[in-house]
Amino acid sequence: MAEKLPVNSDSGTESTEEDEEVEPKFKYQRIANDLKNILNADVVTCTAVHSKFLIFGTFRGRVYLLDHQGNSVDSNLSNSEQHTHKVAVNQVDVDPKGEYVGTCSDDGKVNITGLFSCENNQNLSFGKSIKVVALDPDPKSRVRRFIVGEDKLTLYERNILKKLKPTELCAVEGSVLSICWQGNFVAWASHLGVRVYDLSERCSLGLMKWEVPQQARLENFRCHLRWSNEHTLLIGWVDTIRICVIRKRNGIEAASSNLPGYVVDPVSTFQTTFYICGLAPLASSQLVVLGYRKERSANYKALRPVLCVIEYKMNSSEEICTDSLTLRGFEEYTVNDYSLGCIIEENRYFIVAPKDIVVASLIETDDRVEWLIRHSKFEEAIDLISAHGAGSLPVLSVARLYINHLLTLKQYEDAAKLCLRMLGNNKALWEEEVFKFVKCQQLRAVSAYLPTSEDCKLDPHVYEMVLYEFLKFDVKGFLNLIKEWPPQLYDGLAVINAIHDNFRKQNANELLESLALLYSYQGDYESALRMYLKLQNKDVFELIRRYELYGVISKLIIPLIHLDRERAFKILLDKQKIKPEVVVQQLEQNQEYLYWFLDDLQKIDSSNVFQHKLVELYAKYDRSKLLPFLRRSKEYVIQDALAICKREGFYPEMVYLLGCMGGVEAVEALNIIIHSMSDIEMAIEFCKEHNDNDLWNVLIDESTKQPEIVTKVLDGIVDYVNPEIVVSKIKLGQTIPNLRESVVKMLWHYNTQEQVLCTAHEIQLDDYFDSHSEVVAMRRRAQHVSDEHHCPQCHRSVLMKSTANRNCLVAFKCGHIYHELCIPGGTASVQCAECDMGNSDPSEE
Question: Could you tell me which residues are beta bridge partners of residue 626?
């Protein structure tokens, strides 16, 4: 029989003055029955846990098969001495179906034994100590493959003739210390660190070096490997845990170099406060870790081992709970004497010591719920029931106990939130719980969470009680409820009468707005709009939009813009609602508002009739928009725009307008650029744009007066003006900065241009002669004539033996062949009569 194991539980956080009792995570039972008798005479050295049974090897070389209660199970292991070892068993591994077990020992033997069949048994002798063996995890394999770790990693495969074929997978630094096989990936540890081997590609995915502990050797600690799923590897070694994900390389990584198809990504690495004796997954980001404390007792004995639940993140961890375990003989054990097995699907964990095996199981749902309720942890109890289903106590019963508890603590808001979360659409329960808030005068707390949908609409009296309480104690809250709640929940006229009965001047704004909303709900829109305008409330826009009160607002345009320009323009810019002419007429008395309106109107209607007003408005309120407007629009008088720009001294705009006018005005624009703006680059671009000789002459004349800009002019006039004109106007002895560099650059440019023209000319000549040769060859080509060709005119064969006069033939380029006598107009004709194709040189045969 199994006996319960006493444990001490510690939370993962520091203790406070009054330590909060921590919810137990596990319940523990010590395996007894036949196991107890076995351990009285021997000690456990290794174990393998299967969902059906437990297998362990001992110091004396025996291998035992027991059920999970500790009872011996009859098998080949117990019926023959052939499957035992002479010395301690180092490793035990079992296949997924629980049909075969692999063992290895310091006696140099590796045994693959069928538990209930001897068909595929294997006994190998290596003549040296073998520490690890791993069976193929594929359920369909039937132990066709297994791996042995020594000074190399070797895969053994059974062929059709049932003979083993060894394949060396990888050389090892030292020896193989641990192996864990999942699918096509084999994780194994050596003296340097951990590797993952891909059996499908027959290559290693890399080495994860491990930090060597101080004053110790890495191989003196057992490396614990476990696959939590197909692509996630858990590694626990010394006092470090690493979570690794095996992922497929993306297209870029795979194409960039000759690398394996998969890569090992460490997603989390963290240290523990104890040495690791085993680890297994619990939840998505939680581990169960068996630990050996680094500290010693007062008499330098080992402390009790710990079973710890750790929640890990990127590179950090948190101990959720820690249980100290009292195992038989724990004071005499070392870190390598312990191991941890698990059945992940059942959340059962087997803590194995040389003289003891204890099973840790997650506590049952009902026990947890009762414990949580006793300790007033209702939230956790509800979550637990929701996650695992209702047991003996329904979730609604726990929720109602929780609501009473919160009301007792005067945590009214939390109680209201809980009602919303738990009561759902149960109308009867809602009305029953709401009256608990009535007794506390805390209807305001629950108001935000009351159901208001048609699926669960409470009695109107309930909503009116809430509104009356708000009207009495919180007018702003009352207004918010009027806005939020559908008006059909309560009697609107009754609420309007209540406002009049409890009207207070200090809350006039809120109460008037509430009346406006209630009037709107009742369909009295004119009264509602009148109150909104009186209050200067922005909800007037929503009222206008919803009920299309556009005909009423034509004389209220400026007040509406003053109240909210964005929302007002949203209405005013819609031609279907109000005409732009009406808006512009009203805004003439406020030029800034007119500017805002026309600017927005221009964005949505670039052909509106008010564009001429924008020149003056942009010049006054936003000059940055003036020049782009002048460039894209033509709906303004250019002379008026120029006058405004001259008045304001806007030179770039003046240049653009004068340039558009051309002639003398363009010269004026150039003078503005040179003298007023002092921008010679702009002047050059202006001349290039207009490409007018008079403009170039003005620019060149100005350059001779300012030697510092001569080189810029020389650089800019290339391909537009003969540079000799500029050079000829330079006075003898005049100092021109950087003249030499500009002349060299100009000569290089013309030299390059000349080379390009010469090359193009040569190419053209070559092409001409090639084309000429093709034409000559085509003209010299013979044209085939046969009996099948008929004269298009007389429809006879062109080859006639009886009439000699008709044997003179004329062939056109189009392919038609005539008798010479049949050609209309005689041989002087240069066109085929059939297709009117010109043929200036018909051939005669």
Answer: none
DSSP string, 408-472: HTT-HHHHHHHHHHHHTT-HHHHHHHHHHHHHTT-HHHHHTTS--SGGG---HHHHHHHHHHHHH
CB atoms within 10 A of CB 447: 24
Tokens 């305001």 identify what position?
444
Query: Any idea how long the chain is?
Result: 845
- Compute φ and ψ for 269, nearest 5 degrees: -135, 130
Residue with tokens 């669960």: 456
One-letter amino acid for residue 811 of the chain: A
Range 411-414, long-range pairs (CB < 8 A, 24+ positions): 412/437, 412/440, 412/442, 412/445, 412/446, 413/445
Residue 42, number of CB atoms within 10 A of its CB = 19
User: Does position 40 have pLDDT exceeding 60, yes or no?
Assistant: yes
Lowest mean pLDDT among 183-197, 308-322, 491-505, 779-793: 779-793
Cβ neighbour number for residue 133 with a 10 Å cutoff? 25
Q: At 93, give phi and psi (nearest 5°).
A: -140, 145
Calpha distance 571→114 (Å, rounded): 86
If pLDDT is split at 50, 70 and 90, which confidence band does 135 have? very high
Q: Look up tokens 């150039």; give the residue.
A: 670
- In the beta sheet, which residues pair with residue 279? 289
Closest CA to 88 of 57, 130, 119, 115: 57
Using DSSP, how many helices (H) and how many strands (E) does the chain show? 29, 32
**Would you call 417 helix, strand, or coil by DSSP?**
helix
**CA-to-CA dists, residue 452 to 459, 477, 478, angstroms:** 11, 17, 16
Amino acid at position 150, single letter: E
> Where is pLDDT greater, at 233 or 253?
233
Task: Give the residue among 49, 106, 60, 55 at the shortest CA–CA distance from 76.
Answer: 55
Tokens 């289903």 found at: 389
**Which of helix, strand or coil describes residue 164?**
strand
Residue 20 in this model has a pLDDT that exceeds 70: no
Closest to 748 measured CA to CA, from 756, 759, 737: 756
| Contacts of residue 574, Cβ cutoff 8 Å, sequence gap at least 6 | none
- In terms of Cα–Cα distance, which of 653, 657, 721 is closest to 687? 721
End-to-end CA distance of the chain: 123
Cα separation, 835 vs 841, whole angstroms: 16
CB 55 within 8 A of CB 92: yes
What number of CA atoms fall less than 13 Å from residue 624's CA on the CB side?
A: 0
pLDDT at residue 377 above 50?
yes
Rg over CA atoms, the chain: 49
DSSP symbol at 659: H
Alpha helix segments (H runs only) across 504-624: 508-522, 525-535, 539-547, 557-563, 565-572, 580-587, 591-604, 612-621
What was the pLDDT predicted at 17? 39
Answer yes or no: is pLDDT of 323 > 80: yes
Question: 348: part of which helix (H) or strand (E)?
Answer: strand 348-353
CB atoms near residue 605 (< 10 Å):
14
What is the rounded CA–CA span in Å between residue 605 and residue 599?
10
What percentage of the chain reaches a pLDDT higher than 70? 88
User: Contact, 261 vs 244, CB < 8 A?
Assistant: no
Q: Are strands 317-325 and 274-283 parallel, antiparallel or unpaired?
A: unpaired
Q: How many CB atoms lie within 10 A of CB 742?
A: 20
